[in-house]
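Record filed below.
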Amino acid sequence: MALSCVLRPPRCHLRPPSLPARHRSLVTTTAATWGGKKKAGVSCSLPEPSWEERLANAVTPLWRLPYQEQLQVKYESQRKILQTLASRLEELGIDAQKPGGLCCPLQPVVPSPIINGYRNKSTFSVNRGPDGNPKTVGLYVGTGRERNIVCVKANHVENMPSKHKQVAQCYEEFICHSPLDSCLLFHEGGHWRELVVRTTSCGHTMAIITFHPQQLGQEALATQKALLKEFFTCGPGTVCDLTSLYFQESTMTRCSHEQSPYQLLHGAPHIFEELLGLKFRISPDAFFQVNTAGAEVLYQAVGELCQATGDTVLLDICCGTGTIGLSLAHQVSKVIGVEVVEKAIEDAEWNAAFNGISNCEFHSGKAEAVLPQLLASWEDARPLVAVVNPSRAGLHYRVVRAIRNCRSIRRLLYISCKPEGEAMRNFLELCCPPDPRKKLTGERFAPVLAIPFDMFPHTVHCELLLLFTR
């Protein structure tokens, strides 16, 4: 998609949509009381929503809206975020207000090429279902704080492909026949935990099963792994046609490959995805944008906004498997990628070699440790453009400080999946006046353009691409 299409100004002012009557919450009408007695009339009481509807409302709250109205809702939320940023910058003494009270022009939300079943990764929990079955595989309705969690099958969730639902159903069938309990609370025992399913447009499917070993010995663990492999390769699970089946023993809520290695029980160690004419290798815990078709549109826009020339050096921070840097490598003289997940860096290096790209180097480690060292002695005269794509937690302060204090970086593209969260702190640190007390001595950045990309149809979220220059 040409940037001229992405950057086309809106034809009309987008306002918050009024919800069509067919989508509004129905109001329960109850006969009024008078003198302690019900007034004559009919009492209308709506039935409780089904568990499937409750789950859809929880994970895809916009699912009832036509897609164009979903985009309008998201445009308004991004507009408010930019207004907030402008106000916060004003408080710092920076005249940042543009028309509409925004800190910079906001383009219309770029729609996702695929609206339903777009997710290439889904995580399923194991817990009690609506029928009390403690081995239900699905997604949560309710919260742990309220102690009202119910695990509901995701068969009707619209953003999840059928392949993910099929693997989840087979996993549930397997653990229901297992004599081992599901692990609902670590201290209460049990073993079977979450399932992660990853798929690609190449037709590959990876399943990762997390298992709490409790007090099981190695022989008992080997038996469970053998039974799991047999189920998915010779039993009912063969319908899933898994490319890779992984098993991870974990006593923590989340743990990396380094903390507890992913054990390959069957198939290939990696799955592969094609994006913008390149082939990418994906490991079990490597980051990859959850909407592949949407990522292609996003990365094309990033490439054009970089305004790279033949001598530009591209700094790809939080690079994952190298998708952004590698897709733009042909436009620049060099790509430098930084990523905390070691296996993702191995994938990035393999991806570069497989695609015949030789102008990339990748550094494994926390960005806050690697980047300051990398930029402190930067003396390269070539123009340096930075692209950052952090998690919801945003960038570490030391990363922002290193970018801010590196004079060679005049152009910065920040991709945020939650700009109203910790990313807002990053925006303010990048744009605030120099502050020697915080060691922010470099010239401040200014936001010049914002483009939202709908990477998550049916949800309230989207990816915001913010261009900063100085």
